[in-house]
Each structure stands twice: as structure tokens, then as C-alpha cells.
């Protein structure tokens, strides 16, 4: 009976129902999306057996000053650990790489993982077809087999059923396909968030050269370890044991290296789950706080709608009271109505959340780990149920508290004359204060994040990226005469320069990429571990990196292999604080020039760097094309075919694309914070208008009387503004207090944001809040002050 009556009552107010269902559905859908994301990332166990016992190892290379120079394994240390450790019950090695699939007509570049067999057993990798690696693929077995990801099987092989009878070829080696991973398998993203391996190959075939496999001082961040620690083992004690095992051997191996004198190795264990989070918790908390703010604003808006709705239902509620309904029964009437509305809203919210999961998986897979696990799950449904019940009870309680039961009993007897329900000023002021406090806090935080992200995006780097492409070639691994390869590479360079859209070519690494090199001064014992890049004589001119002293490399330096180097001004000041760095010699290379340092996208500081001549058979090129012209993959492939059938295109990208990729987090922050700020202001404007408009309507008789007695329009505007000023000021004061409290509780985390430049942002935020508040006061008043006073005095209840 109550359900039928509630449904009939709601059907008569379609605008009221659609407004509540839409507003709450969208905001609660966003909240369920972010709550589920937080659950998956922070609470949900990893989808691997005994996941709490899985760890990764951080190999720290510590210099003579006690500073960490690198956090990646060297190849010999990694192999020594794998063969000698007795602490872990299992340990798997992983090397991440990519290569051109030459056995496919399209020559796609696939991401590769070279792994030991333990990788599959540790993660309990399910197979759609075939088998995982076993002891037949153990280290030093050199068994050329491959396992495809399910996605690769679909996209590159059209899900052909005879896939286990096929082979794939990379760099001259053919691998027989022995398995396809299940689509349910979730690969841990150890190298980069969002990076998925498309093919798995045995460890023996990794691309690290024989020479590099013997270098104890060269670390490589593509080398990773996943290991299982037996239950009951103390991670701190394991760290000490492993550090001693690795460091002792390493010290023996590098004893003859003057540069590494005084250096040491330290190993740290990190749980696999903490490694996968990679510091993304803060982003989740900020996102959750923002969405919660939107939900609270929407809730205050809808509270005002329910207040108005309760006032409209006085007559029906009075009938219930007149025929003997108790306060509890009246509350039940209201609860059934709010329950139906919340049921509809939460169903809509679950639909919105489903789309939200898809959006996160498409757009933010490189920002948040484990987004591929997002789906409607028991946590999502449980959260939805709790939200629906809590909101239904809250709105019913707010509506019930407005009712004067004694007045309802007398309302029918007096025909409602003089018994109109009015909302308490305290309730309206509380709603206004809540709105303003949340809006001011949330908008200010969003604008600060938006401003910082935009500044980082627009900050000049000191080099040009427009109209420049970066090309990487996949060269055959078979031994080729170096002179012949140099001739072919130089022929390729000339062919590219002959293209009408190409203005210049540099045989160099991209400006954003650097390696780390050890430098030792020819005089004294100064040692440096510095970012370095091999380039040719055209590099600096092509990207327009300014020369501050000395000369650029010459073409003769490239051809003759001269021992010269160029440093940036940051490194120059470090090695020659009181003079010129020109002429100084490191590793038998003489400094001939100093260039202005460049700031890489997304980085705060300019690091010390140096540049040295590239080999003429370097397989990477920067290609500058004319404005408005493009260099397509098809054009490059055609040029390669004319030069050598052995050359394959590994990758082709523009520097702007690479810049945007490095700034992806900043772009995401800017868009998210900007949209969140706009939505907050929009919801606040709607909510404040509704609350203040209701108060203004309640005062229309007073307004009409004052106008009839000669009050001016500006007097009425001032009256309404004054009536709401205290609530507005209180809301702003509470917001400022909350923000100050946050700065006291999290001083280190917020230090980067609390700067003098924050003042204009704060003023802008207050300006927008004041404007919205003024508009909310003025707009509903127009209907009374723009007409004769008699209209405001009519039909006053």
C-alpha cells in the first residue's frame, strides 16, 4: 500500500524525480568508480597465490659519498643472486624489451618479456592454450620457444586455432609458439604502469650483449626480480643476508676499478603490491576527496529539493495525520518515497560506474595500476547498497524533522489558513555554510593543481620539438661488416635528406633520453656519475639548443672518431666553478663546448649532462621536416627498402608525441582538476540558487511591504545579501580553517603547493564564490523588485 502510494506520488512530479535521479546517479556513479578503484589498488589482494609473500628486490648502487647512484641490478649481480641465493623459495628473473616481429608482413614492434620458468609458477599464470615455460626453458637451456599474450593472439594472429604450430621470428631467431596466456591473467606491471608484455621468451635470449653481461658496474632498470619469501621470514634480516651475499662478490669483481673505489651495494625488499602502487596512492586520495566533495554538494542541493517537496506534501501528510497516522508512520511514508528515489539513483549510478571503469581503462591505464581489474564486484554493490540506504534514511529524516505533527492535525480543520510550512532559518544557513565551505575548499585545491600542471606543461624546455620526428631502426643481429653497415646507414641518411619534406637529419638519440656514464678527471681523483648522450654534429642545431661557450661538434669529429665532448652549463659550473670548463679532460675526452642545459618535460631541475660523438652506424635519427609537412611510416619504410632489405623500422614518433607522453600525468591532472572545479561551481550555483531562492520566496510579503513603503531596488538587494552574508562568510572561514589544518597536518606533502603564487589563485577562488553567491541572492529577487509591489503582496500564505 505505502509503496503504491509513494510511486503514485512520485509519478506526479517527473521533474523532481528526474532531477534527483540524474544528479545523484552521476555523482554517486563517479564515487562508486573511484571507490572501486581505491579498493582494487589499496585493499584488494593481488590475483596471485600467497601474494603477501611476493617481493621485488631493489638493487642500490651507493657511491663513495653514501648517495644512491642507481636502483637497478647489474647483469652479473642479478645472475649471481639467481644462482646463489637460498633465502627465497622461488625467484623469477625478468628483462623487458621490444623488437620487430620480422615474421609478420606488417613488421609490428612487440613488447617482450624474457623470463625464467619461475615467472609463470609464482604468478600461477593460467593458459588459454598450450603450456607455460618449464625446466626445458631454464637458464642456459637455449630452447627457442615463445608464449603469446591473449591480446597478441587476437590482434596479430587473428586468434588462429593452429597457433601452436606456428613460429615467430625476432632478430634472426625463430621461436616455436608453445602457449597462449588466458585473458584472465593479470601481468604485474613492474617496469611501467600500463605496460603489457605481448610475448614471453626464455631468459637466455635476452638482448643484453655478451660484453654487457660481464660489466659489474653497469646497471639496467629493465632487469627485474620477483621472489617468494617463505612464511615467517623477516624481510629486514633477508635484506642484510642478501646485501652481504651480493656486495662481497661485487667488491671482489670491481676491486681494480678506481672509479668504483668506495662504492657498495645494498639490497632492499619491497612487497610486490607496494611496488605496483608506485606512489599512486596520493592521486587516488585526491581523486576520492574531489568526488566526495561533489557528492556532498549534490546532497545539500537535493536536501533543499526534499525540503521544498515536503512543504508541498503538507496537505497529504495532514490527511494521514488526521486519520490517525503516528509520527513513525509519517516517517515511513517519507522513507518509502526516498527509498524508491535512491533505488533508481543507485541503479543509474551503477550504470555510470560501468562506463567510468571503461573510461579509466582506456584513458588512465598508464596512471593507475590494476585498472584492468575494475568491474562491478561485491565491494561496489555493497558500497552502493550502503549509500542508497544511508541517503534514503538521511533525506527521510531531514523531511520528517520539518513536520510539526500538532500543526498537521489542525491543518485540515483550519483549511490550511496561516499554517504554511516554512523552513527554519538555521536549516537554510546550515545548507549555505556547508555548500560554501565545500566549494571554496574543493575549488581552491582544484585550481592549485590545475595551475601547477599547466605551468609544467607550458614551461619551456630550452629545445625545439615542433616538426621533428625520432626514428629507431631494428638492425639484424647477425654479424655484419661494420664498415658496410656504416655505409648503409649513411646512405639512408642521404636518402632521407633527399625527401622534399625533410629539412635536416641528425644521427642521435632523442633529446628526452639519456644514459648514465662514469667520468674520471685526467688530473686529480674527481669522479662523476653523469647523464650522457651520443650525438652527431647536427644535433644541437636541429633542436636549437644554445651554445654558450666553445664549439659544437664538427663533421670531422664524427668521421675521425675524435675524443671530444660537450657539457651543459650545469655540469660546467660543477667541474669548473671559478673558470671555464673548456679544455678539461675526462676519460681521455676533451671538453670543446658548453651548451645551455635543457629541462626535460615533467622534471623540476636541470641535471648535469655531457654529450659525446655518436658512431656513424648509430641506428637512431632525428628528422626535421618542413612546417605543415609530415613524414609517414610508409614513406620511411619505402626509403629503408631502397637502402637495405635487412633494415626494419622499430619505431617512428614525433618529439611532440614523446613530450606529451612524458607530460601525460600533468595533462591528466589539468583536465581532471579543471573539470572538477567547473562541476563544483555549477553544482554550487544550482544549490545556492535553490536554497536562497526558497528563502527569498518566503520573504516576498516582507519585500512587497518594504517596496510599497518606498524602498528602492538596491535596498532590497542589500537586504537579501545581508540576510545571507553571515552564512556565506562562515562557510568561507570554515574552508580556510580546513585548508590551514591540512597544511599543519601534512606540511611536507603540501610544501610544493604552498607558495606566494598561491595568493592570486586564492583571490580568484574567493572572487568566483562571491560572484556565485551574489548571483544566487540577486537572481530570485528579480521577480519581486522588477514588478509593482502589489504582486508580492498577493496570495501570501
From TrEMBL:
<feature type="transmembrane region" description="Helical">
    <location>
        <begin position="328"/>
        <end position="355"/>
    </location>
</feature>
<feature type="domain" description="ABC3 transporter permease C-terminal">
    <location>
        <begin position="675"/>
        <end position="788"/>
    </location>
</feature>
<keyword id="KW-1003">Cell membrane</keyword>
<keyword id="KW-0472">Membrane</keyword>
<feature type="transmembrane region" description="Helical">
    <location>
        <begin position="284"/>
        <end position="307"/>
    </location>
</feature>
<dbReference type="InterPro" id="IPR025857">
    <property type="entry name" value="MacB_PCD"/>
</dbReference>
<comment type="similarity">
    <text>Belongs to the ABC-4 integral membrane protein family.</text>
</comment>
<feature type="transmembrane region" description="Helical">
    <location>
        <begin position="375"/>
        <end position="396"/>
    </location>
</feature>
<dbReference type="GO" id="GO:0005886">
    <property type="term" value="C:plasma membrane"/>
</dbReference>
<protein>
    <submittedName>
        <fullName>ABC transporter permease</fullName>
    </submittedName>
</protein>
<feature type="domain" description="MacB-like periplasmic core">
    <location>
        <begin position="21"/>
        <end position="244"/>
    </location>
</feature>
<keyword id="KW-0812">Transmembrane</keyword>
<keyword id="KW-1133">Transmembrane helix</keyword>
<feature type="domain" description="MacB-like periplasmic core">
    <location>
        <begin position="436"/>
        <end position="618"/>
    </location>
</feature>
<feature type="transmembrane region" description="Helical">
    <location>
        <begin position="758"/>
        <end position="781"/>
    </location>
</feature>
<feature type="transmembrane region" description="Helical">
    <location>
        <begin position="431"/>
        <end position="450"/>
    </location>
</feature>
<feature type="transmembrane region" description="Helical">
    <location>
        <begin position="667"/>
        <end position="692"/>
    </location>
</feature>
<feature type="transmembrane region" description="Helical">
    <location>
        <begin position="723"/>
        <end position="746"/>
    </location>
</feature>
<dbReference type="Pfam" id="PF12704">
    <property type="entry name" value="MacB_PCD"/>
</dbReference>
<dbReference type="InterPro" id="IPR003838">
    <property type="entry name" value="ABC3_permease_C"/>
</dbReference>
<feature type="transmembrane region" description="Helical">
    <location>
        <begin position="20"/>
        <end position="42"/>
    </location>
</feature>
<dbReference type="GO" id="GO:0022857">
    <property type="term" value="F:transmembrane transporter activity"/>
</dbReference>
<dbReference type="Pfam" id="PF02687">
    <property type="entry name" value="FtsX"/>
</dbReference>
<feature type="domain" description="ABC3 transporter permease C-terminal">
    <location>
        <begin position="292"/>
        <end position="400"/>
    </location>
</feature>
<dbReference type="InterPro" id="IPR050250">
    <property type="entry name" value="Macrolide_Exporter_MacB"/>
</dbReference>
Amino acid at each position: 500500500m505505502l509503496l503504491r502510494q509513494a510511486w503514485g506520488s512520485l509519478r506526479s512530479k517527473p521533474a523532481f524525480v528526474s532531477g534527483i535521479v540524474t544528479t545523484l546517479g552521476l555523482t554517486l556513479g563517479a564515487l562508486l568508480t573511484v571507490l572501486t578503484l581505491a579498493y582494487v589498488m589499496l585493499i584488494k589482494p593481488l590475483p596471485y597465490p600467497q601474494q603477501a609473500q611476493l617481493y621485488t628486490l631493489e638493487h642500490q648502487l651507493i657511491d663513495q659519498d653514501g648517495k644512491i647512484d642507481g636502483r637497478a641490478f647489474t647483469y652479473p649481480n642479478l645472475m649471481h643472486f639467481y644462482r646463489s641465493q637460498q633465502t627465497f623459495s622461488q625467484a623469477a628473473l625478468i628483462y623487458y624489451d621490444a623488437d620487430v616481429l620480422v615474421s609478420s608482413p606488417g613488421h609490428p614492434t612487440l613488447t617482450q618479456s624474457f623470463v625464467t620458468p619461475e615467472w609463470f609458477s609464482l604468478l600461477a599464470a593460467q593458459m588459454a592454450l598450450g603450456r607455460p615455460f618449464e625446466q626445458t626453458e631454464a637458464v642456459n637451456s637455449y630452447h627457442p620457444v615463445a608464449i603469446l599474450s591473449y591480446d597478441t593472439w587476437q590482434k596479430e594472429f587473428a586468434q588462429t586455432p593452429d597457433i601452436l604450430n606456428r613460429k615467430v621470428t625476432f632478430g634472426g631467431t625463430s621461436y616455436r609458439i608453445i602457449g597462449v596466456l588466458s585473458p584472465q591473467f593479470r601481468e604485474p606491471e613492474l617496469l611501467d604502469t600500463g605496460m603489457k608484455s605481448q610475448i614471453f621468451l626464455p631468459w637466455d635470449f635476452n638482448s643484453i650483449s655478451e660484453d654487457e653481461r660481464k660489466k659489474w658496474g653497469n646497471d639496467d632498470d629493465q632487469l627485474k626480480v620477483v621472489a617468494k619469501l617463505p612464511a615467517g621470514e623477516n624481510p629486514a634480516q633477508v635484506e642484510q643476508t642478501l646485501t652481504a651475499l651480493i656486495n662481497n662478490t661485487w667488491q671482489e669483481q670491481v676491486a681494480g676499478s678506481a672509479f668504483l673505489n668506495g662504492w657498495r651495494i645494498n639490497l632492499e625488499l619491497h612487497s610486490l603490491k607496494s611496488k605496483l602502487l608506485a606512489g599512486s596512492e596520493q592521486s587516488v586520495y585526491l581523486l576520492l576527496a574531489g568526488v566526495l566533495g561533489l557528492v556532498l554538494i549534490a546532497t545539500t542541493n537535493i536536501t533543499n529539493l526534499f525540503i521544498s517537496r515536503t512543504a508541498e506534501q503538507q496537505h497529504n501528510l495532514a490527511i494521514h495525520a488526521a486519520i490517525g497516522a503516528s509520527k513513525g508512520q509519517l516517517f515511513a511514508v517519507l522513507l518509502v518515497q526516498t527509498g524508491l528515489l535512491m533505488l533508481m539513483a543507485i541503479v543509474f549510478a551503477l550504470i555510470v560506474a560501468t562506463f567510468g571503469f571503461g573510461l579509466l581503462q582506456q584513458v588512465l591505464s598508464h596512471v593507475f595500476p590494476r585498472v584492468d581489474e575494475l568491474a562491478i564486484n561485491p565491494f561496489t554493490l555493497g558500497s552502493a547498497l550502503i549509500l542508497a540506504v544511508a541517503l534514503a534514511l538521511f533525506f527521510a529524516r531531514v523531511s520528517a524533522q520539518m513536520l510539526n505533527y500538532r500543526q498537521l492535525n489542525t491543518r485540515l480543520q483550519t483549511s490550511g489558513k496561516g499554517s504554511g510550512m516554512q523552513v527554519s532559518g538555521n536549516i537554510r544557513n546550515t545548507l549555505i555554510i556547508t555548500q560554501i565551505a565545500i566549494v571554496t575548499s574543493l575549488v581552491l585545491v582544484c585550481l592549485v593543481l590545475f595551475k601547477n600542471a599547466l605551468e609544467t606543461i607550458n614551461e619551456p624546455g630550452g629545445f625545439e620539438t615542433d616538426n621533428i620526428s625520432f626514428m629507431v631502426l631494428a638492425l639484424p643481429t647477425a654479424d655484419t661488416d661494420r664498415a658496410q653497415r656504416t655505409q648503409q646507414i649513411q646512405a639512408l641518411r642521404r636518402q632521407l635528406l633527399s625527401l622534399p619534406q625533410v629539412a635536416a637529419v641528425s644521427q642521435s638519440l632523442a633529446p628526452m633520453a639519456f644514459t648514465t656514464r662514469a667520468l674520471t678527471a685526467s688530473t686529480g681523483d674527481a669522479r662523476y656519475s653523469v647523464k650522457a648522450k651520443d650525438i652527431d654534429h647536427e644535433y644541437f642545431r636541429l633542436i636549437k639548443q644554445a651554445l654558450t661557450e666553445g664549439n659544437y661538434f664538427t663533421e670531422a669529429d664524427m668521421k675521425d672518431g675524435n675524443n671530444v665532448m660537450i657539457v651543459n652549463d650545469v655540469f660546467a659550473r660543477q667541474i669548473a666553478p671559478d673558470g671555464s670548463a673548456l679544455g678539461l679532460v675526462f676519460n681521455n675526452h676533451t671538453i670543446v663546448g658548453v651548451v645551455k642545459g635543457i629541462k626535460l618535460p615533467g622534471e623540476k631541475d636541470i641535471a648535469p649532462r655531457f654529450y659525446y660523438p655518436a658512431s656513424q652506424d648509430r641506428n637512431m635519427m632525428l628528422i626535421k621536416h618542413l612546417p605543415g609537412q609530415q613524414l609517414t611510416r610508409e614513406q620511411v619504410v619505402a626509403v629503408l627498402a631502397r637502402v637495405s632489405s635487412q633494415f626494419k623500422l622499430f619505431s617512428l614518433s614525433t618529439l611532440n608525441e614523446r613530450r606529451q607522453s612524458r607530460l601525460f600525468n600533468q595533462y591528466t591532472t589539468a583536465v581532471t582538476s579543471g573539470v572538477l572545479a567547473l562541476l563544483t561551481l555549477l553544482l554550487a550555483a544550482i544549490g545556492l540558487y535553490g536554497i536562497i531562492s526558497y528563502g527569498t520566496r518566503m520573504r516576498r510579503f516582507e519585500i512587497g511591504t518594504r517596496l510599497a513603503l518606498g524602498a528602492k531596488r538596491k535596498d532590497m538587494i542589500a537586504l537579501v545579501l545581508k540576510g545571507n552574508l553571515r552564512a556565506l562568510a562562515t562557510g568561507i572561514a570554515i574552508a580556510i580553517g580546513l585548508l590551514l589544518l591540512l597544511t599543519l597536518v601534512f606540511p611536507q606533502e603540501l610544501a610544493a603547493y604552498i607558495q606566494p603564487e598561491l595568493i592570486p589563485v586564492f583571490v580568484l577562488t574567493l572572487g568566483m564564490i562571491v560572484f556565485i553567491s551574489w548571483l544566487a541572492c540577486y537572481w530570485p529577487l528579480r521577480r519581486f523588485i522588477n514588478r509593482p509591489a502589489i504582486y508580492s503582496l498577493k496570495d501570501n500564505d
